[in-house]
Each structure stands twice: as C-alpha cells, then as structure tokens.
Amino acid sequence: MLTVLHINAGEVWSGIEQRIFSISRLLNSKQFKIILAVSPSSSLYKKAGSYNIPLLSLKISKWKFNPVAIWKLSRFLKTHKVDILHTHRSSDHWIGVLAVRLFGLSSQCKIIRTRHNFTKIRNNYINNKLYKESTDRIIAVAEVIKRRLIDENNISENKIITIHSSIDTEKFKGVFDEKAIRKESRIAPDTIVLGMIGRLRKHKDYPNMFAALKIIIEKFKNIKLLIVGDGILELQLKNMVQKMELSNHVIFAGKREDILEILSGIDIFALSSSVEGSPAVIKEALIMEKPVISTNAGGIPEIIQNGITGVLVSSHNPEALAEAVLNIINNRDKALEMARKGKQVIINEFSETRLAELTAEVYQGHG
In total, how many domains does the chain have? Predict the structure, then answer.
C-alpha cells in the first residue's frame, strides 16, 4: 500500500480543494492510504473529516519558510513512512520540499506538484531548483499549462502530465428546484437569468461582464446577472455596479451551498475570466445542460469546443461577450443543443472516476 499525503495551504473551498477531496475520497482503498495535511479551520478539513479521510492539522501561513510547519511535516512524513507528498500551492510546495530535503527524506518520499492555474512562473535560480530538481512529477490541470511550463520554463516534457479537474457527475442526477433562486431573488419567470459562480477575485474579471451587461441592456432589458460567490473585491464590485447604473440588473447572492439549485434556475452560464486553469464550474453548468459562454482563458478551450458545446470569446472583450449573450438569447434551440452536446463531453471526459484513475497511475509510477 502506498501512503500519499496531500498538503494544501488553502483555507477556502475552491476548485483546488474539490479536486483534492475527490482524489482522497475515491483512492482511499487497499491500494492507497490518502492523508490530508490542511488547516483545521479550512473547509477541506471539515469536509474530509466527515468522510473519515485521515487528517494532519497543519496551519500553513503565506510565509514559505515557516520552520514550525516544516519541522512538523517532516516528522509526520518520517513517522508515517509517507511515499508521496502531493502539493498544490506555492507555499505548501516550498514547505513540502524543505521538509523532505532538509531532513534527508528524498529517497523515501517523492514530491508531486499539481499546477492548477495559468499564472507565470518566474525563470530564476530558486524556481528552477524547486521545479526541475526538487519535484519528481508535475501534474498540469490543462494542456496549455503544461505547454507553458515546457516552453517558458524549459521543464522536461517527460516530467509533466496533463490531468484535467473533474466533477462528481452522480450528484447532478437528482431533481432540483429551479424556481427557488428566482423566488428568493424576486426574479420574474420570463426574465433571462445570466449566472456567474466564482470567487470575487481580480482574475475572474467581473468588470468585463459588467461592461458587457451595459451593452446587452441597450438591446435587451429583461435580463438579470446573478453573481454567486464572495471574496475580497465584493464591496468594490458592488460600488462599480452602482456607478454603472446596473443595480436593477445585478444580484449579488453571496457564498452559497445550493449551487445545483442555482444552476437549475439560470438560463445561461457565463465566465468572464482573464486567467483560468480547468474550471469545474463550467463542467457543472454543462452537466446541468445550461448554455455556456466563456472567455478563452487558460484551459477553457480544452473543455469547450467553440460553436459546438458552448461559445468562446477573447478575454477583455465586453463587446464580444455581449454579442455572444444576445446570440444565445435569440437562438435558444441552438444554445440548448450545444449544452446537450457539452453534457456528453463532461460525462465522457471529465468524471471523478477518470480523474482518480489517471492520478492513481501517476502515484503507482512514483511509489
């Protein structure tokens, strides 16, 4: 049996945490013992505990060289004879590498890093040591991320494998109350609801969608933009909506747990990001057969085939985004057909089972 320890510095629930949770839940078996080293105050810690996934309470600050965390992790790796340390963010990657290297555990414990986003890695001595010498395997969540690591950071192609993030397709087979969010938000049955789900962060580029909405309502006024999520930009974005005189068309629903009911209640799903990896929320919208309009950022074109399973537009282009929304509104039959085709792609290529199988192959190759 291989012992695999996932270490993650994240406190909130995002696509990264969902991926870790899926792998841990599906691979804990006679073949693998999966343990999570995460903050006790994190959403992942609480959810994993409810599924009896083994946990190590490890608070990781943004300081990459936290000596307490490094020492605690090294002791755990040695005591529990961990075969593979799987890292996910910059800070936990550094702490993991130092815990293994400084305490002479390199022959026992191999290091895997998943690159979840398209952000650039600076080409310098320290990063070269981290990725090229101190990391045994890199998993990219999109092919475009893999190509960037090869082309810009000169990392060997043989060291990197692409494994897209996935969703639990089984949980979408229930019956959901599509009227609930409309009733709660006082949205009329005939109003088109354009949904966005995600953290209120800069890379999601909500101002791009606001600018597009301004164009849309000049031609089609019976539309509401429903934003689900919270984040550091919440107040700034609300002020922006007010200044742009869009308050009657934008609803901030905050952080929600009833995402499936919300997806069932919208008409169109949109993503206006400038940077992305392999966003799970697009897959969730498609599995619910919702027409998807998105920017072509990061690995999104690897999920959506433009004009076949959804609509892609360039980033920072509100005019194109507005035109795409209006075309979907005016061509509902075609939009729903694209959504149905998209659903089949997600079922066939982006299931949790597929993610677990491919990840297990990586572990077996380094155990």
Answer: 2
Angle at 13 between CA 293 and CA 278, to 5 degrees: 40
**330 lies in the same domain as 340:** yes
Of 274, 206, 211, residue with least CA distance to 236: 206
Q: How confident is the model at residue 367 (pLDDT cuts 50, 70, 90)?
A: low
For the record, the structure tokens of 4 come out as 């695999």
* 125 and 231 both lie in a single domain: no
Q: Tell me: pLDDT of 268 over 70.
A: yes
Q: Where are the alpha helices (DSSP H) in 157-279?
A: 180-185, 206-219, 234-243, 259-265
**The whole model's pTM is what?**
0.87
Tokens read off for 142: 């999109």
User: Helix (H, G, I), strand (E, B), or coil: what is residue 113?
Assistant: strand
What's the rounded mean pLDDT across residues 154-172? 93
CA distance 12 to 190: 35
Q: Give the total residue count for the chain.
A: 367
Please state whether beta strands 55-57 and 32-38 pair in parallel, antiparallel, or not at all (unpaired): parallel
Q: Which domain holds residue 85?
A: 2-166+351-366
What is the tens place of the pLDDT at every residue in 130-160?
Answer: 999 999 999 999 999 999 999 999 999 999 9
CATH of the domain at 292: 3.40.50.2000
CB 41 within 8 A of CB 121: no
Q: Which of 306, 311, 310 is nearest to 340 (CA)?
A: 310
Write the CB contacts of 367 (distance below 8 Å, at least 6 apart in sequence).
2, 83, 84, 110
Inform me whether the pLDDT recorded for 76 exceeds 90.
yes
Angle at 136 between CA 48 and CA 82, to 5 degrees: 45
Looking at residues 33-43, what average pLDDT do you find? 96
